[in-house]
Amino acid sequence: MAMTTSLFRAIPRFALPCNAGDLMSACKAFLSQPPPPDTFGFLGNGERFWTKSGRQALRLLLNALGLKPGAGVAVPLFTDLSVISAIAAAGYRPVFIDVEERYLTMDPERLEAARGQFSAVVIVHLFGQMADLPALLTAAGDVPIIEDTAHAPLSSLNGRLAGETGCASFYSFGSTKYWPAGGGGLAVIRDSSLARAFERLITPLRQPSRTEGFKNIVMLSAKAAVFTRPLYPVFGRPLRRWAEQYALLEPPLDDERIHAAHAAIARRQALRFPERVSRQRANSLRLLGCLSHLPEVVLPYERPGARYNYHIFPVLLSNPRERDNVAAAMWRKRVDTSKIYFNIVAHCRRHGYQDGCPVSESVAKRLLTVPNYASLGFGDIDHVAEALISSVRTCRTASNRSAADGCIENTGLSSI
After folding, report:
1. CB 206 within 8 A of CB 27
2. Which residues contact 117 (CB under 8 A, 6 or more apart)?
3. What is the average per-residue pLDDT within 163-170?
4. Residue 50: inside a domain, yes or no?
5. Boundary residue ending a domain (249, 270, 291)
6. Which residue in 15, 69, 117, 343 has the most C-beta neighbors within 10 A?
């Protein structure tokens, strides 16, 4: 049976797998202290510390390293703005490194070319795809490496989990992350001296107010509701695009501790997280199979030796106009998409970027992400694939026709 394309059966780009049990655990934790982070054994070895956000975790980790004020920190240009802002907030200077087009992670050759300009490296496993850690370690030399694993829980390379190579890693439980507890973060530190320095920094953090904690529970409940299929087209999609444009979902970078409610939800979600990753990965591999013959589109195949959790499914189209036209055509088929990080270059220029990352600049203009999350069935995934394939073909046919018409006009043959 063909899948209906009714507006109220539209497929949202994201889902918030926050259930009634999660919200109940948040309510129970409302008047208590955060529970210990003791259900995260599958994230690898290291001491674990709650933080208010992934951004706060990175800022405090950088401060705990004790770098000289104004020191350079290498970071990929194409990444979440919160990574860049955390480096700046720590008092350091982002050193922007280009990415590999095929994998969208830091290019080891570009990192090596920047040797001497940085005192630490933040390696981002973007969308869950593993960066080339062996090559990046060689390129970085002997400077400390922090892994941004916010997108990459349970991703691995050569049998080694994301987060097990650098001196520390961090996770985020924000609403748009793989682990959407509504907020909060986690730092996992493998170096004991760094862990003690980090502990000294988090000890004086302020306890958040109960009023804000209650507001966060209400907001998370509302977001989970509007991301359901019946409500998403009317409420979720307009609000999401507005929030993306103005970064309204970015958590504030303050000196507060994690809300107990967020910690309780994250801890509870950890119990079912491996199963959810397995389902999302199966959906993504099916989607890859359906799209494998689509020409001139870069698909998110795994790096050799890697196991990708497929937090986000990105596709690179031929040019910005095609990306925008395909996104519009897919929504007409009731499949939502996202132009994630489309404005990152402009933001990075405000942090000192002055060109030198052509691949990242191109990627920001051409990248589109499509739905692949765990709660979708194979019928939904097949519909997403069909919508993308037909939209690309339709847009390219229209583009070729327009180009041909232009050639006819330019040769003076338009009346024939």
Report:
1. no
2. 72, 74, 95
3. 96
4. yes
5. 270
6. 15
- Let me know whether 65 and 104 are in one domain: yes
From 251, 270, 289, the end of a domain falls on 270
Gap between the Cα atoms of 312 and 131, Å rounded: 15
Residues 265 and 277 in one domain: no
How many angstroms separate the first and last alpha carbons of the chain? 46
Strand duo 306-307 + 160-161: pairing:
unpaired
- Region 73-80: mean pLDDT is 97
Residues 6 or more apart in contact with residue 311 via CB below 8 angstroms = 127, 128, 151, 152, 177, 178, 280
- Reference 372, options 108, 12, 55; nearest CA is 12
CATH number at residue 305: 3.90.1150.10
The Cβ of residue 49 has, within 10 Å, a number of other Cβ atoms equal to 22
Describe the crossing of helices 378-410 and 320-332 by its angle, rounded to 10 degrees.
130
In the block, residue with structure tokens 């720590």: 90
**Within-domain flag for 171:** yes
Per the listing, tokens 């991703």 go with: 155
Q: Is 162 in the same domain as 26?
A: yes
Task: Give 252 or 11, the one with higher predicted confidence.
Answer: 11
Residue 209 tokens, joined: 């107010």
Q: Which residues pair with 156 in a beta bridge?
A: 161, 307
**311 shares its domain with 360:** yes
Please tell me whether residues 258 and 319 are part of one structural domain: no
Do the domain assignments include residue 2?
no
Q: Tell me the three state secondary structure of residue 206.
A: strand
Both tokens assigned to 107: 């290019």
Write out the two tokens for 215.
Answer: 């507001």
Cβ proximity of 258 and 202 under 8 Å:
no
DSSP H or E segment with residue 255: none
What's the burial of 131, exposed, middle or buried (CB within 10 Å: 0-12/13-18/19+)? buried
Residues 237 and 350 placed together within one structural domain of the fold: no
| Length of the chain as a residue count | 416
Looking at the fold, whether 400 and 349 belong to one and the same domain comes out as yes
What is the number of domains present in the chain? 2
Domain extent, residue 156, equals 20-270
Return phi, psi of residue 370, to 5°.
-125, 160
Amino acid identity of 132? D
| Tokens (6 digits) for 41 | 């054994």
**Cα 116 to Cα 176: distance, rounded to the nearest angstrom:** 35
